[in-house]
Design a protein that fits this description.
Elements: H1 41-51, E1 69-74, E2 79-84, H2 94-106, E3 116-121, H3 134-142
Parallel strand pairs: 2-3
Antiparallel strand pairs: 1-2
Length: 147
């Protein structure tokens, strides 16, 4: 643990990310909508859809339906910032999720959904099973989890 933040150090984790203690995660179903006419509405939806290809390696469910994606923003330079968390700050497979995110967002025929991206790992509020979408719950039940 770091003395100043109380968060376990993790390779690839942005330890300088602002804590979001007072804000509730919005979840995939209620990600913020960009201003009308900004041209970014489709981009945010495209990023969210592409993130469904990123699968938590321990649970086998995509990170959107698992409720790990708290926010998505797309800047005018076509760079996406994804605020997301993990089921545990001690997750040993962070690099797998980062690699899948890179593939989902920046590769494909004719390029990617965005030109660049940044994952902002956040730990507050902590993830819990209540953040799983109904689709995610159905997927977990199909895998034999009781939820």
């Amino acid at each position: 643990m770091t003395a100043d933040s109380g968060v376990d150090s993790q390779p690839g984790v942005d330890q300088h990310a602002p804590a979001q203690e007072d804000s509730e995660p919005r979840g995939a179903a209620s990600l913020p909508e960009p201003p009308a006419g900004s041209g970014a509405a489709t981009a945010v939806e495209d990023v969210e859809e592409a993130m469904r290809d990123v699968v938590d390696p321990e649970l086998g469910i995509n990170v959107v339906d698992l409720g790990l994606v708290y926010d998505i923003r797309v800047e005018s330079d076509n760079t996406a910032t994804i605020d997301m968390t993990l089921t545990s700050a001690a997750c040993p497979l962070t690099d797998v999720i980062e690699d899948q995110t890179k593939m989902a967002l920046t590769s494909g025929p004719g390029g990617g959904v965005v030109d660049d991206y940044r994952i902002n790992w956040v730990w507050m509020p902590p993830w819990g099973p209540e953040k799983i979408t109904e689709d995610g719950r159905e997927q977990l039940r199909a895998l034999g989890f009781r939820i």
